[in-house]
Amino acid sequence: MLAVRAIGLRPALRASRPSAALFRTAKRQIKTETISQAEARLILDRQRLHRPSSPHFTIYEPQVTWLLSIAHRVTGSALSVGLYAFFLSYLAAPVVGIPLDSAHIVEFVHGLPEWIKYAGKTVIAAPFAFHSLNGVRHLVWDTTKLLNNNAVRTSGYAVLAGAIAGTAALVVM
Amino acid sequence: MSLVGGVVARQCARSARNGFGFTTRTIASSARLSLAQPVPKEQPAEPSAKAPLVKEFKIYRWDPEQPEQKPRLQSYKVDLNQCGPMILDALIKIKNEMDPTLTFRRSCHVYLGPAALLHAYRWIADSRDSYGADRKEKLQNTFSLYRCHTILNCSRTCPKGLEPGTAIARIKLEMATN
């Protein structure tokens, strides 16, 4: 299929058929040249290099649905990064020379100031609590239950409340 | 009617009298169909004419011919009573009547949206339909169905109160268990 490219004045590549009346009376005001499909694609790719991304995240009304969904994704990836870092540290420990066994870890944490201990526990417990409870919510959805708008909203707030309570429980433990 | 090149013979009606008791004429013409011109639509000022329902469309515009110019929001006011129901209808109306420089493209052949999947489920769930297996087979790829991550914005935003999220979850369950 050959593409038609309009040249001359501000080009108006029509995406739709103009109304018959307009077509009959208006004179052709632009010149066109025919280019190959490959060349048309090149032009498009060149435009795309400079094309700004349109606002999607920033402009969509905040809603329980997608706010909790993106929180699930973010907490999930954060927890994964932490877990992988912890696993990999077992490989790095002998290389760096820092011993990584239970006795040393307990001794190190014991020596930290109180506020760091609580802050650290919160930072780990909060995403873990939220992601676990929201994960259960996702599993329930996979059984096709609780998918109507009211149930989604109620279960969403329940997960948030449970996450706060769960974080509190884990931090004071 | 002069005979020109014999392209299309148009016939308005066949019978002299149709079932409703009106007389109809048969017109045969060899004139090209493309010579036909629609009667320009008149807008009569009748008291029963719909009051204009104006909606403002703010479109994020960017000109690839002037890439250094920052993208900006451009406002268009469209009378929804003179326009088709879809956003695409509004865009086409803006392009035809207000600003021909508005350019857009759409690519729907790979992804299926919640509306299409809801419609598909309507048929999959119908016991009278014998093509259920074929419909499910068409969804066996990474894009059509499984790009859904159960965000559930679709059900939340549906202006008709339908539940595409529920339908999609049911399709997924059927695909997994059959």
3D architecture notes:
The complex is a heterodimer of chains A (173) and B (178). Chain A is mainly alpha-helical and 173 residues long. Chain A has helices at residues 20-25, 37-50, 64-96, 102-110, 114-142, 149-172, and strands at 3-7, 31-35. Chain A is built from 6 helices and 2 strands. In chain A, strands 1-2 form a two-stranded antiparallel ribbon. Chain B is α+β, with helices and mostly antiparallel strands and 178 residues long. In chain B, 28% of the residues lie in helices and 9% in strands. In chain B, helix 2 (114-124) packs across helix 5 (164-177). The termini of chain B are far apart. Chain A binds chain B through residues 10, 12-16, 18-22, 24, 47, 50-52, 54-55, 63-66, 69, 138, 141-144, 147-149, 152, and chain B through 37-38, 40, 60, 62, 64-65, 67, 70-71, 92, 95-96, 100-101, 103-105, 149-153, 155-156, 163, 165-166, 169-170, 172-173.
**Which radius of gyration of chain A do the C-alpha atoms yield?**
29 Å
Residue windows where pLDDT falls under 50 for at least 5 positions of chain B = 1-16
Strand portion of chain A: 5-15%
Q: Specify the biggest β-sheet of chain B.
A: 2 strands, antiparallel
Intertermini distance of chain A: 69 Å
**Largest sheet of chain A, described in full?**
2 strands, antiparallel
The strands making up the biggest β-sheet of chain A line up spatially as 1-2
Strand content of chain B: 5-15%
Q: Tell the overall outline of chain A.
A: elongated
Q: Tell me the helix content of chain A.
A: 55-70%
Q: Indicate the multimeric state.
A: heterodimer
Q: Give the topology string of chain A: H per helix, E per strand.
A: EHEHHHHH
